[in-house]
Amino acid sequence: MRVQTIKTGGRFEEIGSYARVKRVGPFVFVAGTTAIEPSGLLHAPGDTYAQSIFIFKRIEDALREVGASMRHVVRTRAFLTDMAAGGGGFVRAHGEVFKGIDPVTSGVEAGLTTPGMMIEIEADAIIFDEET
To answer: What's the whole-model pTM score?
Structure first.
């Protein structure tokens, strides 16, 4: 069975012994992903919608690294600092990115580590043929 592990150099990956993406056979798991830019700065502080779009792009890039795409995503989970204030922005972004794909999703209110960080998203995917 094919096993592929991708690390992206995140500051906690080595300390915490985890990977950004793990593929086992057709199953792909993308770790909780935030809107930290390559420069180390937070993208769009306080803007859940903009952070969600940024994160979905990072997730798409991570999936591509292991031979998957957004059409393979079957589940997303969002951790929001304020569900009432940010839930709508997440739902709008999710609807735009996954229109016609319709993965299941959950949202949880949670504390995040960086001021202005509104959301962290993880994704699970199963690589399949269109005819399956």
So the answer is: 0.94
